[in-house]
Amino acid sequence: MSSQLSERILNMSTSATLAMAAKARELRAEGKDIIGLSLGEPDFNTPDFIKDAAKEAIDQNYNSYSPVDGYADLKDAIIKKFKRDNNLTYTPSQIVVSTGAKQSLANVALAVINPGDEVILPAPYWVSYSEIVKLAEGVPVEVTTNIENDFKMTAEQLEAAITPKTKMLWYSSPCNPSGSVYTKEELEALAVVLRKHPQIIIVSDEIYEHINFIGGHYSIAEIDGMYDRTVTVNGVSKAFAMTGWRIGYIGAPEWIAKACNKIQGQITSGANCIAQRATIAALEAPVSSINYMIEKFHERRDLVLELLGEIEGFQLNVPGGAFYVFPNVSSFFGKTIKGKKIENASDLSLFLLEEANVATVTGEAFGNPNCIRISYAASEEQLREAISRIKTALS
Ligand code: PMP
Ligand code: GLU
User: How confident is the model over 178-185, as a mean pLDDT?
Assistant: First the structure.
């Protein structure tokens, strides 16, 4: 009967990040001592003040459907957050709250993309971008960036990728998987090109906004001429250690927000009501309330760069944010280690899982076949042990 599946699903890849996390779980259940550095998920608990807000919401009988696009007071909190952190002014009809930023992205894709529309994805990009674009019958157009340029797309590269079919540009900053942060100047250079092509809609995924070690987070919607064509995506999963609560949101031109609202009204009826109430507490708190997590991520980034830097064959950029490193491991390709031939990043990632009991994700899933992604959202002890195992396995 599986031949009855739609082409849409047959053409879709499984999420490599979630697949690797599932594989690690499976091996652990078999008794293997796997260190999971594959999933981009903070290892902290959700802060108590957020949990308290959720408990209160239950006691206050928040149990009914919320407005499809989110509670009015949550939207107010989001509007204030956009103003406070990004200097962006939105009205309630420009905000849509969804079941994770993942759904926000899917809504936008379904709302805007027609079959055959091209979507520019600076590669490496987050795994789900290309699959969500394809689900909406769009065509992902990868723009290959390199480690020398800190994995950032230049204005020239953007210009060269634009065709009459280009409908959108999607990127994340700080970037998953490279950790790269676009500066104001770099975004302004991209905006110069985009101004010449007013039909292109921009998706700026800023879910790692607060996990930034160099300061200076900048939203492209702040730049002249970009606001009316940019969807700014954000959420609470990463900064507030709330991955399982599933709340993401957009600030967008009203016509896009309305379309997302319409889709959501037919597909989910809106996000979970308790998680929405908890999100109000998260967004209304001063950003300093999560500094302890950001500081830890920063320390771990430095530790991981130092330890991986000692392994011959790992070429690294210095990530300005998020909680990933994305080493180029192509120097191992063509070698046979412990009887296993390493032809590409997927082979190396599998080798590390089998020989070092460390789960990573192949860069192929992110549009870069020379790298692997290592998440350092894990304890210092686990990181030290994992990298020591990697070193031993590869030596
Ligand atoms: N965008 C990026 C760049 C991500 O890394 C993630 C990770 N899950 C998401 C969006 C989706 O986040 P969520 O659905 O948990 O809000
Ligand atoms: N965004 C995280 C990651 O890249 C979580 C997993 C997912 O949603 O794909 O690992």
Answer: 98
